[in-house]
Amino acid sequence: MRGVTRSTSPLPVTLRDRRPDDLPILSRWLTDPGAEWRRWDAPYFHARTTTQTMQTYVAHLAQTPPDPDEQVIDVDGECVGMVNRSEEPPEGGGWWDLGILIYDPAHWGSGVGTRALGLWVQDTLDWTDAHVLTVTTWSGNERMIRAARRLGFRECCRVREARVVGGVRFDSVRLDLLRSEWEGVQA
Ligand SMILES: CC(C)(COP(=O)(O)OP(=O)(O)OC[C@H]1O[C@@H](n2cnc3c(N)ncnc32)[C@H](O)[C@@H]1OP(=O)(O)O)[C@@H](O)C(=O)NCCC(=O)NCCS
Question: Domains in the chain and their CATH numbers?
Fold first, then answer.
């Protein structure tokens, strides 16, 4: 399936720059070692390393202006997560990898992620010279895989049994989407 073909969220989902009043929310969710999102977003990394990385990241956020490669996911005026992107080297090569994280499980499964990722694809195609976009996850993260597929991403790489989560081996999964395949975000 290519492009967004259905209304994915009844909620008003927007992407915007981070504001100072988002910081307490970001800090609380990102640095909580027991947060549920950690069981889904790269859970194969050691928890202590993730905590340290997040503490450093939050300190960085507090000291830096908003970055166009990171946007807050806003639902009805509330910061519920973030999207980010990074260019795979070399610079100007046209390959960008996208990330998404919705902090509170209460917001999962109601279309917010698909909607936010669709907006992020559009933003990335509008503001970069991306030729191809990727999303990278693991085979246990069905919500992530299905959200990407819903938007037209196709599986392009699967490294079998490469990730260990809770003592069980899962595949590392990457999906891609060409600029030429993108049909735009449904209003
Ligand atoms: C992954 C994430 C962004 C998806 O966003 P979401 O708002 O929860 O997902 P959506 O409601 O848009 O649904 C996406 C798809 O997953 C399906 N889905 C919803 N709940 C599900 C569940 N419990 N199990 C399996 N699939 C589920 C939906 O039906 C939809 O598929 P469809 O379009 O084929 O029907 C969000 O769950 C999240 O941030 N999770 C924690 C962090 C994370 O995993 N980040 C990604 C790291 S790579």
Answer: 13-181 (3.40.630.30)
